[in-house]
Design goal:
This is CCHC-type domain-containing protein. This protein has 11 helices and no strands. The protein is mainly α. The radius of gyration is 49 Å and the shape is elongated.
């Protein structure tokens, strides 16, 4: 439109007889060069070149949009894979702890059952100690008969018994019954305290491994670069001329900057709106010459400090928020794990 306005001036000057048509034709026929390149002077040629350039720019913009969408999809897939991997690791740790608790609880015998087994084992032991085989009974009967005869002999001849030495009396005394070894069941079933200590120590080892896994995940997350959160609806206009500035997304005037819009919060939706309305991605304006001719061409993004896009279209704050949320979740789970381990250590110390 501005080019056509410029070329309409010679026609007005000729109509006002301020310039002759021949003079204008002679001016247009003179060859013009800029940096050793010919300059187009005919309006038709200029419009054709502009149309070709606009078509090329449109194709490039479509290509860049496709590349941006592809990169965004890849980043989302990487983020999803990372989150899924973290969930699987955390779920695996929780399953290990649950399985260990169930296994130890299943192996431990309740206290009442232990008491019953101990009573039964003691009863078997007492029965075995009281019951004697026929050979032992006959030996005891013979010994008793000998003792009776010796008592009678002692009554008849006490001097012989008095002359007998103490060692001989001990040898003639009946042997002391040997005690049986404790039943095998008592050796196989230790007291409940032993089971409890083993269970607690095993669970402590599992929790220590979980703490190491949490530390590795935290280190990986903390190495990722982040930026401050996007400040929604907190923009304040400092200059007088900005009072009439419209938000590029919701259209409200003088209330907030486009980066602080709460109606369109995510960068993906904002980029789609800008692309559909054919606005410039650097200044968010429709009437812009784009590329290096844009007034915001050399303005850095407030969030990622890169060039080529407006701060309102930056996706770095969303990725930073997701990273901070994962760090908080992992820290909470690590804290719960450490608290549980302290409780188990105190319980183990009381045993």
């Amino acid at each position: 439109m501005q080019l056509r306005t410029l070329f309409s001036l010679p026609t007005l000057l000729i109509a006002l007889k301020e310039m002759s048509p021949s003079f204008w034709s002679s001016l247009m026929e003179q060859p013009l060069r800029h940096e050793d390149k010919p300059v187009l002077t005919r309006l038709e040629d200029i419009e054709n070149v502009i149309t070709d350039h606009l078509q090329t720019l449109s194709d490039l913009r479509s290509t860049l949009r496709d590349i941006r969408v592809k990169l965004q999809i890849e980043q989302e897939e990487e983020t999803t894979m990372f989150e899924e991997e973290m969930r699987q690791k955390l779920s695996h740790i929780e399953d290990l702890l649950k399985d260990q608790n169930l296994r130890t609880e299943g192996e431990m015998i309740p206290e009442k059952d232990n008491e019953k087994k101990i009573i039964l084992d003691n009863a078997e032991y007492l029965e075995g100690a009281l019951s004697e085989d026929p050979i032992e009974e006959s030996a005891e009967e013979t010994e008793q008969e000998q003792d009776t005869e010796e008592e009678e002999t002692q009554r008849r001849s006490p001097s012989v018994e008095q002359r007998r030495s103490p060692s001989e009396a001990q040898r003639r005394s009946p042997p002391v019954e040997q005690r049986r070894a404790p039943p095998e069941a008592q050796r196989r079933n230790p007291p409940p305290e032993v089971h409890g200590a083993a269970r607690i120590e095993l669970e402590i080892r599992c929790l220590q491994q979980a703490l190491r896994d949490f530390d590795a995940i935290l280190q990986q997350l903390q190495e990722e670069s982040v930026c401050p959160p996007r400040r929604f609806h907190r923009g304040r206009f400092l200059r007088e001329e900005e009072r009439y500035m419209k938000c590029a997304f919701c259209g409200e005037m003088g209330t907030h900057y486009s980066d602080s819009c709460i109606f369109v919060r995510y960068a993906v939706d904002r980029r789609r709106m800008i692309d559909e309305s054919a606005k410039c991605a650097m200044c968010l304006e429709y009437s812009c010459q784009r590329q290096e001719f844009c007034s915001k061409y050399r303005a850095r993004c407030f969030h990622c400090r890169e060039f080529g896009h407006h701060s309102a279209l930056c996706e770095f704050p969303e990725r930073s928020d997701a990273t901070r949320a994962r760090i908080t979740e992992v820290r909470n789970r690590r804290h719960n794990c450490a608290t549980r381990m302290d409780e188990l250590r105190r319980e183990l110390a009381r045993l």
